[in-house]
Design goal:
There is one protein chain. By secondary structure, this protein is of the alpha+beta class. It contains five helices and seven strands. β1 and β2 form a beta hairpin. The radius of gyration is 55 Å and the shape is elongated. The relative contact order is 0.11.
Length: 255
């Protein structure tokens, strides 16, 4: 038993180097190297963490200062512009009179069975509008025209004269029956006459209507003995609410 134990111990220790001053120095040197390595690794890791943190901060500052991220890091957020519906709506100016609409109104008011319409004509716009048709009822072609004005003309009944009357609303109606179109010898040649009315409203706006016994005011022979529409017909037309008058004109004409 003792022999076996001794033999085992010798085998276990036969390769062990005896403790010498050289072995001790090498052991101490290895320990110092391991300690310096661990210290260097720890220092490098700490420095890397610091640099990474600094990089993140710098990157954050750069991003916060970039135009596309102006809303980040407490920078003011741009205020949205008000929508079109939120803007103050300017006061609309009164629309000018439409000559085409005036022409359509004229036709609608004088249309009747057996009447045909030709040579439509319009003029003006804004403060006034004119329209005309050549109407034929089977007894001869006759021109009928209308002029709507925003005002500025002199009142035909100031001073008051024959053919003038005042309506309940304060408007003035002037009528002229079968007035010759020429003041010279041509009247005997062409024999053109007209019926004419003007309704002059209190605000100065007026409606003028004329009916001829010829297809034109001048230059053409008459086609019928009297105009197509009488002064009574024209007076009723002038009082119609169907006319769309232009806005009141600021121009003041001569009385």
């Amino acid at each position: 038993m003792n022999t076996q134990l001794t033999d085992l111990m010798n085998r276990a220790t036969e390769n062990l180097e005896p403790v010498t001053p050289d072995l001790l120095e090498r052991s101490v040197a290895q320990g110092l190297r391991l300690r310096r390595r661990r210290t260097a690794i720890a220092t490098a890791s700490g420095a890397g963490a610091v640099l990474a943190t600094a990089g993140l901060i710098a990157g954050g500052i750069h991003l916060a200062g970039s135009p596309q991220d102006a809303g980040v890091a407490g920078s003011p957020v741009p205020i949205a512009k008000p929508s079109a519906s939120a803007k103050a709506t300017p006061t609309a100016k009164p629309a000018g009179v439409n000559p085409k609409q005036t022409l359509a109104t004229l036709k609608a008011l004088i249309a009747a069975p057996g009447r045909t319409f030709a040579s439509p004509e319009t003029w003006g716009g804004g403060g006034y509008a004119g329209a005309a048709y050549v109407v034929n009822d089977g007894h001869g072609a006759a021109r009928v025209d209308v002029l709507l004005s925003g005002g500025g003309e002199g009142n035909p009944c100031v001073p008051k004269r024959a053919g003038c009357s005042t309506l309940p609303d304060g408007s003035v109606l002037y009528v002229s029956k079968e007035s010759p179109e020429y003041s010279d010898s041509r009247q005997a040649e062409y024999r053109v006459v007209s019926n004419y009315v003007v309704l002059f409203r209190p605000d100065g706006r007026n409606i003028n209507l004329t009916s001829y016994n010829a297809p034109a005011e001048k230059g053409k022979q008459h086609t019928r003995p009297t105009p197509l529409l009488s002064v009574e017909d024209l007076s009723a037309l002038a009082k119609s609410k169907a006319w769309k008058l232009p806005p009141v004109s600021s121009f003041k004409g001569t009385k």
